[in-house]
Design brief:
With 387 residues, the chain is mostly helical. It contains 16 helices and ten strands. The chain starts with a helix and ends with a strand.
Amino acid sequence: MSTNEATPIYIAFPDGVYHYVCRECTTNCCRNSRQFDGDLTGELRQLRVLYPAVEYAAVKQRGECLTFSTPSGHCLFLTEGNRCGIEVDHGKALKPMTCSLFPFHNLVRLGEAVVVTPNFLCPLRLEVPARPGEVEGTHAEIESQLRRSHYFRESYLSTLHRYALPSKAKAKAKEVLSREVAFRDACSVALNRSRFRDTVLEFSLDPRSLEESVRRRAQQLELDGSLLPPSPDRIDDLLLAISPGLRLNLTVLPAELILRVLLLFELWLRRVLTLTGIVPRSLADAATPKGATDLFGNVLPALSLLSVAGEPVKLRSPGRRGSSPLPPFGAPGLTFAAHRLLRSADGAQLEMSVVEEVLSTLPTISEKLVLLSEVGAILRVEVRKGT
């Protein structure tokens, strides 16, 4: 069986939930890209005949994949009307495959599977109810294009980054993949029907314990459930759409801790979005797939550290014992608090009581979040064997 047929594909978002229309877009992703690549045995054969000067932009080759550079801020083929000149003159089939797949071309390995996540450089629109077959984010079309592309040759697949998995012997990549597929499919069913929180709790082995652990940690940042809606709203749909992809940043954690991070993020996101009453445009920016995903990346170190505190995981600093680098806060209170957390976590799990005690010494939420973010970015999470 060939690589194209045997390699599983996991598309980490609900089917038909994302859409874009290039000719209506004013973001001009092509202005932000500094390179593109294509298949020497495919579209590039004719492309190099039609545009001989493109040869002089070649910068890298990997097997049958040839990469070309473009001037910063402007693709070589972008027309004055912000359209792809290749597509306008010769049709979409001749476009470089990376451009045809965009924005669904972020590829990472999870075991033998290829995971597809969106590139939010594209301002993807959220479609609820989902419309598989009618929008660009249709799984069947994405998978068909991907399997036909040079990205699905073993010479390319072997170069892809791999998601980290827990170190325990029972953590098989296939089991993790099966879990992720089940979560994505549950999110698909829940769209426009159920709250994000309820969907997450369905995947917990002990929902009551999960809710209590989230409540205790949320208190440290003065977050509570008062902003959670009694019925599903558009923030629920947004979280259901992006959370299958967000979870992939947490594959090294046990399943229950991943759920804990997601529930904490919802509380944090809804609190941040209350700023929209002061700055109306922030809702349009933050309450989009790109905006919420960017916000998740910003707060992930803090929420991850808060989530694993008190759990059987190891948190190690990159330096020798007792020599962890301290962030240059320029504030004695923060510096001392960081020192205490790093010293407590060096070589052992971080006790929740220590986190609570240290955070209680800081007078503002911003200081607490800064501390968790910067210390969380320094520490490395390792799951203990047998957990």
